[in-house]
Design a protein that fits this description.
The structure is a homodimer.
Chain A: E1 21-24, H1 34-44, E2 48-50, H2 53-59, H3 61-70, E3 74-75, E4 78-82, H4 89-108, E5 114-117, H5 128-149, E6 153-155, H6 172-182, E7 193-198, H7 199-202, H8 208-215, E8 219-224, H9 248-257, E9 264-266, H10 279-293
Parallel strand pairs in A: 1-2, 1-9, 2-3, 4-5, 5-6, 6-7, 7-8, 8-9
Chain lengths: ~290, ~290
């Protein structure tokens, strides 16, 4: 694979709008706190941001909301709710309570959605079907508050390599089954439960095109990065757009065809490369690759 | 996860038959050639073996066939054909020619199937749909010879984390779509194109139970190992049965419910652990875990 290469943009897929690029702060988390990330986005003309809760709490929710507002940034999501399965009822209730707090935080910063990384197997368990049932129960318990707050929940199907320890929802089809069961109203009215389409997690799926089309209005977020060959670590070796094998323009075309007019959100876990660099350099590269490789 | 733990065997699932355990020689490849693996299986009372082509060629096909016959071992598969996608027509033709040789080798050693690891993206390509089409064309080209030789081809869906560089068939559903399209005769008559169900690759699949049931008579092999938490390497950190989170008895029950009466084949890539041990120890542990954890 030629480094920094780009796929040809399919006919009918418009070039990415630089005003619709968002920074997921996981991308810069090793060097920047949230205040720096907000200022960095403003400085680079990146108009969207998606913070993580630990950084949000470290900065203070009210202060973060004020800084985001002052710079006119769009909050494309809050990362993350979820992590529902647990070995005891008390732990599951605590997870739901934490998700309710996350809904409040998402509302306070005007986030377009609360991203759910749903959780994997409880400690010591091999019961994948049971974990998936606990996810369903957890989302069902949080959904009324999310609906009331006007903060839709975005289930992020995670790559199957994370099924055990991070998220046991592993395909768009599985996520959409949950959406349709728990939020049937979302077919016509406002979507309370939708999906985050992160190319890293779903690019391999033989059903990808069909399931994105099925998602339709339930696409609440579109995350971008790339799949490196070789991938050196299961968690922290994501590539910058153009450095891997994902056909980003094609997938973006499928996402746009649903009517999704939101942001392309860059989220890169990269202990071996991008986390080691000056975040100002990282943001400049993100902007350039977004234009050239998506 | 408690090490060496086992899941409870679901009601109605019989205990594994120790006479139906097979050794995939990848498990011992760092220390044993094929001749040693054949003798090791005989010594430990393991009645099945599944060699890799490099080891088979190193020993000599005729010599290997004679040694396997002398010990009365069942050859549960030959690993591996496939690797069809390539950047040029000449390379694709060479891959097909190599698969035809693999069919001959499988026939010569009386293998119950030729396992296909179908191949990933050609060098420099991001065209996943195109690679999948090349896989279809490659299998279609090899299938008549396989049928004539009485060596069924077993498509092994590989975990999605290998979609780029090893196999772009990543779910049982996708493999079975290919089987039904290319080998419609297999519904009634002898199966020429089926699947290898390797728990490592498919355990996470929300459709797993349904797709195993759909496979029916097309289940040609059942490979076992375990998924470690944490997994330290994408390729060579598989676990011994019982050391991970896969519900092995449940999946074995689904496989048996199709009517599959073949072997459970242990295949463990483990540079960090099992490859470093004395293969006689590894085989003893395989036997014990097969009985206790499957």
């Amino acid at each position: 694979m030629k480094p920094q290469g780009g796929s040809t943009r399919p006919q009918g897929v418009a070039a990415p709008d630089p005003q619709r690029l968002s920074l997921n702060t996981a991308t810069t988390k090793e060097r920047w706190g949230l205040a720096q990330a907000i200022e960095g986005c403003a400085r680079h003309g990146i108009r969207g941001i998606s913070p993580w809760r630990d950084q949000l709490q470290a900065m203070g929710v009210a202060q973060a909301a004020a800084a985001i507002r002052a710079h006119g940034l769009t909050v494309t999501g809050l990362c993350r709710g979820g992590l529902f399965p647990a070995a005891t009822a008390a732990l599951r209730a605590a997870a739901i309570a934490d998700n309710l707090r996350a809904v409040e935080e998402a509302h306070a910063i005007g986030a377009q959605c609360l991203v759910l990384v749903v959780g994997g197997l409880p400690e010591g368990s091999r019961d994948l079907a049971g974990a998936r049932e606990q996810v369903r129960e957890g989302i069902a318990a949080v959904l009324p508050a999310a609906r009331a707050a006007g903060v839709p929940l975005a289930i992020e199907p995670l790559h199957p390599m994370y099924a055990a320890d991070r998220a046991c929802v592993n395909t768009l089809a599985q996520a959409l089954d949950l959406c349709e069961a728990l939020d049937p109203q979302g077919v016509q009215g406002p979507v309370a439960l939708g999906v985050a389409v992160d190319v890293y997690h779903v690019w391999w799926d033989p059903q990808l095109e069909a399931q994105i089309a099925r998602a339709g209005r339930r696409v609440l977020a579109h995350h971008i990065c790339d799949w490196r060959v070789q991938t050196r670590d299961l968690l922290t070796d994501r590539g910058m757009m153009g450095d891997g094998v994902i056909d980003l323009p094609r997938i973006r075309g499928w996402v746009r065809a649903t009517g999704y007019a939101g942001f392309d959100e860059v989220e890169i876990f990269s202990a071996l490369d991008w986390w080691t660099r000056d975040p100002d350099e990282v943001l400049a590269v993100c902007k350039e690759r977004h234009q050239r490789c998506c």
